[in-house]
Amino acid sequence: MKPAAFDYHAPESVDEALELLADEAVESRVLAGGQSLVPMMNFRLAVPEALVDLRRIEELRYLRIGADGALEVGARTTQAELLRDPAVTTGWPLLHDGVTHIGHPQVRSRGTVCGSLAHHDPHGELPALALALGATITVAGPAGRRQIAAEDFFVSFYEVALEPGELVVEARFPAPPAGSGWSFREIARRHGDFALVGVACLVTPAQTRLVVFGAAERPLLLADPSEVAAAVRPLDDLHASAEYRRQVAVLLAGEALAEARERADG
Question: Is 1 among the domain residues?
Answer without folding.
Answer: no
